[in-house]
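Supplementary Note 3. Input sequence used for the single-chain structure prediction.
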Amino acid sequence: MLSPGNRMRRSAEFGRTMRRGRRSGRDALGVVLLTARPDAPGAEDAPRVGFTVSKAVGSAVVRKRVQRRLRHLMRDRIGDLPAGSLLVVRAKPLAAHVGYDTLAEQLDAALSAVRRSRGGATRRRKGRGGGERGAARADGEQRAGS
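The predicted structure, written as discrete structure tokens, is reproduced below.
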């Protein structure tokens, strides 16, 4: 079981993590990691983890079983997270049907992907066309609708 100091409980923390965190998903689950800036208050706190298991996963009994499995898996992995970070683990409907070992493999893969450096890539913004409206493309053609 995760210690109370490692559990995320406030809605504002969940919201901030979901809006600003880095995402990685697998078949049975998805994770969102928000790392704390070194100069931010609370950057030296213990990492905290929150879980979301929607009704699409199953009945209340099934959802609770999935949540307990995920909590138990995260207990061994909490030390690998950076200090002050917030992590949301979101169970998908398939999580109710896969075995414990499969869930562990998918959690490990998602966590390693979300911690991996993006190599200088930046987040894409809306309006991916780039340039000004009506500007010619590099090959000399006009964009459709211009």
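The chain has one domain: 4-115. The chain has a mean pLDDT of 83.
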